Amino acid sequence: MQQEALSFLSSSLPSLHHNFPSLSRLRFNNFPALSFKPNTSSSSSSFFKSPDIPSLSSTTTTTTTTTTETLESSIHEKLIYLDSLGIDFLTLINRHPPLLSTALSAVESVVDYMTTPPINFTLQDFRRLVSMCPELLTSPLTSHTIPVITFLLREVGVDSIFDLRQALRRRPRLLACSVDHQLRPTLYFLQRIGILDPHKHTYLLSCSVEHKLVPRIDYFEKLGFSRRSATAMFKRFPQLFNYSIAENYEPKLKYLMVEMGRDVREVLEFPQYFSFSLENRIKPRHEACAAKGVRFPLPVMLKTNEAGFRDTLEVHFCNE
C-alpha cells in the first residue's frame, strides 16, 4: 500500500482556480441601467402627429422616463436604508447585482426577521452575514429563508436559537442554499455514512455531495484504502471534508511518507493529522524528534502543546 500510495501522490492533481467575475465599482448616478436614453429620432406617421392624438414617440419617452425615475428612486431608497444599517450598498451590488432589482420592502422584511426575536442577530452580526452571503437580502423570506431556518432547527436538530446563530455565523452560505436541492441531500449523505450528529457539523451542509464530499472519499480509496476504511476516517473526523486535496491532503501525505518514513495507514486512526499546520507544527515536531532519534505516535507528537511536547521529548530521550 505504501508504494501504491506514493505512486498516486506523485501525480499531483490540478489546482482549483476560482474565477470570479469582476464588475467595475458602480456610482449611484452612473448605473448602466439608468443611463438608457430612448430613441426619439424616428419619424412618425401624420396620423400620430394629429393634434388630437398623442404622439407614440412622446408616449414612449414619457413612459421610459417615468420608469427610469421610479427605478432610480427605488435604488436611492435602498441605498439610504442599507447605509443606515452600516451596509455598503455600492460594494454589495458590485458583488451581487440582483440587489438592484429587489424591492425595498423585501429587503426590509429580511432585515426585520433576522434582527428581531426570536432570531435576534445583532446589527454587527447581520452585517457580517450579508458581507459573506449577500444573497440573504434578495432571497424570498417566506419561500427560502424561513424554510432554511426551519430545516436547521427541525431536521438537522440544531438545539436552540443560540446554536442556530452560532451555525449561521460559522457558515453564512447556508442561507443561500436550497433546502430541497442542497441542504437535505447533503444531510442524508452525512447520515448514510454514519455521521449521526449533523447538528455539530452544519458547516458541511452547504457542501456539494457530488463535487466536494464524495471526491474526498474517492481520493483515499485511490491511495489504496477500502471504501469502508476511507469512509470511517470521515465519520471519525468530519472536518476532514473541509480540507483541500491539493493544498492539504497531498503535501501532508507526501511529507508523512517520504520525510517521516511513516505508513500512510497511520492517518486512518488519526485523521486529525490533516488539521495541523505542515510548516508550523508537523515539520518542526518531526525534526525535533529526528534530532533526538525519537519516534512518537502521531497523536503524541502533534496534539500536546509546545511545553508538553518538549517535556515528553526530553523524558523519552533521557530514558533511551
Helix content: 55-70%
Mean model confidence by pLDDT: 85
Shape: elongated
Radius of gyration: 29 Å
- Structural class designation: mainly alpha
Portion in beta strands: under 5%
Largest sheet, in brief, is:
none
Helix count, DSSP H or I runs of 4 or more residues: 15
Distance between the termini: 31 Å
Order of helices and strands: HHHHHHHHHHHHHHH
Query: Would you identify the regions where 5 or more consecutive residues have pLDDT less than 50?
Result: 12-54
Q: Strand tally, please?
A: 0
Organism: Arabidopsis thaliana x Arabidopsis arenosa
Region (Disordered): 38-69
InterPro entries: MTERF (IPR003690)
GO molecular function: nucleic acid binding
Please give a structural write-up.
Pfam families: mTERF. Residues 38-69 are annotated as: Disordered. It comes from Arabidopsis thaliana x Arabidopsis arenosa. InterPro entries: MTERF. One of its GO terms (molecular function) is nucleic acid binding. By secondary structure, this protein is mainly alpha-helical. It has 15 helices and no strands. It has helices at residues 2-10, 56-84, 89-95, 104-115, 123-132, 141-154, 161-170, 179-192, 209-222, 227-236, 245-259, 266-269, 278-292, 298-303, 306-319. Helix 1 (2-10) packs across helix 11 (245-259) and helix 9 (209-222) packs across helix 10. The longest helix has 29 residues, at 56-84. It is elongated.
